[in-house]
Amino acid sequence: MKKFKPQRVLIEKQALDYPLAKKLETQFLKEDTPVDYIESHNRVSPAKEMEPIELFNWTKETLVIGTKKTLRFKSCQPSADYRLVTSTSCPAKCEYCYLAKNLGSASYVRIYVNLEEILKAVKKHIRKGHGEIITFEASSSSDPVAVEHLTGSLAKTIEYFGKQDKGRLRVVTKFAGVDSLLNLEHQRHTRFRFSLNTKYVIDTFEHLTSSLKERINAASKIQAANYPLGFILAPLMIYDGWQEGYTNLLNQLKESLSQPTDENLTFELIMHRFSTRSKNLIEARFPNTKLKLNKKDYQHKGFGKYVYPEHEADKLKKFLSKQINDLFPKAKIEYFT
Ligand code: SF4
Description:
Layout: E1 8-12, H1 19-30, E2 35-38, H2 52-60, E3 62-66, E4 75-76, E5 80-83, E6 87-88, E7 93-94, H3 100-103, E8 109-112, H4 115-127, E9 134-137, H5 148-151, H6 153-162, E10 167-173, E11 190-196, H7 199-205, E12 206-207, H8 212-224, E13 229-236, H9 242-256, E14 266-271, E15 273-275, H10 276-285, E16 299-300, E17 305-307, H11 310-327, E18 332-336
Parallel strand pairs: 1-2, 1-3, 3-8, 5-9, 9-10, 10-11, 11-13, 13-14, 14-18
Antiparallel strand pairs: 4-5, 6-8, 7-12, 15-17, 16-17
Helix pairs in contact: 8-9, 9-11
């Protein structure tokens, strides 16, 4: 697995008041990575005008180091009570990235160095629950594992949640760099979900992420480290050989997990979908995409959203549910959508 190494680094001036920004500045200057200084992480663009593909590639090679100013967390229903944002975007280029629409041209990788302030805000949000368990989603605006080798922030956040009676953390990732997270005092307060798909789908559409094999190995290590574990199978796709692809994926998973009969295992199943806006973005950034985006083959769900027609959705649901129930009899399928 190749770790993200930016081609250029932009540091917000006020971020340099924090030790992590200073440390990264020293590290990148030593490695001869170009470093520049900016006023705000919200307004970043290249010096010259670029076409959409060139601009997209530029953003994904750029690391912006800043501070998170808004410490009032947004709701993250139905996944968790709140979004916990320690980074924005990620260095990978999944053609159907769930962040693409919201980020638009601001898809450059941002990390926030004021983690202590962010964690203090977590405490405030836990208190608002008046004794109820409050959950926080760490992957609503990024893949935090993708930048963990630079920040170490996820490890600190997991240990922080390990000490919270009423706080729980949820992480989703397509990356395998979990070794630094295995020996933490997590107290099972963090649930990891690995986003998986068939080898064909990962190799064709999820550029610069960890391979299927690497993700499954990482999931197995996370389970052995006693974290609660789950899987998001998304986007579920119908293509030539899809049944064989998903059967292989689930068999491989079963063989690799030390406890495939763990009753805490969860599966979340999400079908391929697109909107008019996401279709336009994907076609501009990946003009040779093999993604099927022909509206006439899909069912219009309103608000410009398209999903598989009912009979195909039903086929996917029945097939996947049966496979999961047979191979992981104690696992819970949380939803199919
Ligand atoms: Fe988007 Fe996740 Fe892929 Fe990164 S790994 S590009 S956040 S879908």
